[in-house]
Design goal:
The protein has 278 residues and is mainly α. It contains twelve helices and eight strands. Helix 7 (150-181) runs parallel beside helix 12 (268-275).
């Protein structure tokens, strides 16, 4: 998703510096006009740095490194799906040095990122959110300001992923049920998504399930397991039971156990068919 962000910002004429530890897509982005950073100090002049990394550990590493090189009042926008605690740590780390931190995780997938159709959940001190808005406006179709505490954006994101995962599980179950009863899955999909179940998640992921199009993944199963784990951990801290999310997490783990770790999380539909003996 970070590659899509960089391409869109380049298209809009922003001076864009990219830093990728794994080197993915660096050459292509350089050819499009980006400058490649070789070390953290190469980002020292940036007014705003956007990070998109897979987990809490990576976010801690990035925020520590950025805090050591960014100027006072520079802003770190974290668009990663991480725990509220990790977001809180990053915010405190930057604040101690007079730097800004905005959490801005997204609802959407890499295709929506490329098309600037993401929904962005932004949270942080008003001053830093306001300064970040012109940039965030270029990356999505709508920005929701969910508060001044950055961790609230991450809590929202985890809740959204728990809701999406529950929908994928439900879609997989009912499509497998109807398939085994003799209904063409494409017919079942059309009936549902052209009546009461016409939401974006039902349509986008339901189609993947019906077409058995689980690769390339928008989000891999292991990342989905991580997100449900983080959501359930936060819910436990708040004493909020989430029985449906718990079941769906176990189904995601079961899919990974079958060796499907490279598949999209909509492969919950594939698991539903397997469980039904289809």
């Amino acid at each position: 998703m970070g590659t899509a962000f960089a391409r869109n910002l380049l298209d809009d004429g922003y001076e864009t510096v990219i830093f990728s530890k794994c080197g993915n897509n660096v050459a292509a982005l350089e050819a499009a006009g980006a400058k490649a950073a070789m070390k953290w100090i190469d980002l020292a002049h940036c007014e705003i740095v956007i990070s998109m990394v897979p987990d809490d550990e990576a976010t801690d590493s990035v925020s520590i490194s950025l805090a050591n090189v960014l100027d006072t009042h520079a802003i770190h926008i974290s668009m990663s799906t991480i725990s509220p605690d990790a977001s809180r740590r990053a915010s405190e780390r930057h604040s101690r040095l007079g730097q800004g931190y905005v959490a801005a995780p997204v609802l959407g997938n890499p295709d929506l990122a490329a098309a600037r159709k993401l929904y962005i959940l932004a949270a942080g001190p008003d001053e830093y959110v306001e300064r970040s808005l012109p940039l965030l406006d270029r990356l999505g179709q709508r920005i929701f300001n969910v508060g001044q505490n950055p961790e609230l954006a991450n809590t929202f994101k985890l809740a959204g992923n728990a809701l999406t995962a529950a929908t994928l599980q439900s879609m997989g179950e009912v499509l497998a049920f109807l398939h085994k009863a003799g209904v063409d899955p494409k017919v079942a999909f059309s009936v549902f998504t052209e009546s009461l179940f016409d939401g974006k998640v039902h349509k986008a992921y339901g189609r993947k399930i019906v077409e058995q199009r689980y690769s390339p993944p928008g989000m891999t199963l292991p990342l989905a397991v991580k997100d449900l784990r983080l959501a359930l951990a936060e819910a436990e801290q708040l004493s909020v039971p989430m029985p449906v999310a718990s079941v769906v997490r176990d189904r995601l783990v079961a899919a990974v156990a079958r060796g499907w770790e490279d598949l999209d999380w909509s492969a919950l539909g594939k698991l539903a068919e397997f469980s039904a003996g289809i």
